[in-house]
Specification:
Blueprint: E1 31-41, E2 44-54, H1 59-96, H2 100-110, H3 117-127, E3 130-131, E4 135-136, H4 142-146, E5 154-160, E6 169-178, E7 184-194, H5 197-206
Antiparallel strand pairs: 1-2, 3-5, 4-5, 5-6, 6-7
């Protein structure tokens, strides 16, 4: 119920405007604003009153509001859970994947300079590392060019794919550089980053 705070009677004088608002005691079921306009004109006192009222929304509209709020909360929770899972899986992948430093240390221990291609193949097979055979370097890999490997140099290329669940996968690339006698002269180890195939497919599907 709405009640009036006070009543005021103005004495004759200069023209004035008085705005009088009722108290809100049962929000939102009762919201009434009453304006009293008292104007003194030629010795007579006049008063104009207007009352504005609003009622609660019908229950179907309130239900729609509740459903919208609940849907918004669920979407925010789902997005938060997805973000946490993505960060967790990426962190786990980074901790468990094979790194270039590990491969470099293994090669230094097991494949010294002067090792034969057959010895290189045997060690890579024992480690479960994919590799090719002796091929001339075509000069299309900037990492090897920066390392001083010239086009036409005999090399054996190996790769550790590091499959897993992450927004970015890291392959460890290994190039065994051979001398003119076909023996190991040097090796180059570096990492190559790329997106997983499932992410590429989803991004491709989103294109117009």
């Amino acid at each position: 119920m709405c009640k009036t705070l006070s009543n005021r009677v103005d004495t004759p004088g200069d023209p004035i405007v008085v705005l009088h608002y009722s108290d809100f005691t049962e929000l939102p079921t009762c919201v009434i604003a009453t304006a009293f306009v008292r104007l003194y004109d030629g010795g007579s006192l006049t008063m104009a009153t207007r009352t504005y009222g609003t009622r609660p929304l019908p229950w179907p509209f309130r239900l729609l509001g509740w459903l919208f709020s609940a849907t918004l909360v669920l979407l925010i929770m789902a997005a938060t859970v997805a973000a946490v899972m993505a960060i967790s899986t990426s962190a786990y992948y980074e901790l468990t994947r094979t790194k270039s430093g590990e491969m470099d240390g293994m090669i230094d221990k097991r494949l010294p300079v002067g090792s034969s291609p057959e010895r290189i193949y045997a060690v890579l097979d024992e480690e479960g590392i994919e590799h090719g055979t002796v091929q001339p370097f075509p000069g299309d890999d900037l990492e090897l060019l920066y390392a001083g490997v010239k086009a036409g140099t005999p090399v054996i290329i190996a790769s550790v794919r590091n499959e897993g669940y992450s927004l970015e996968l890291v392959e460890v690339q290994i190039a065994f550089v051979l001398d003119e006698n076909g023996m190991l002269k040097d090796h180059v180890v570096y990492e190559r980053h790329h997106q997983p195939e499932w992410l590429d497919r989803n991004l491709e599907a989103l294109k117009p």
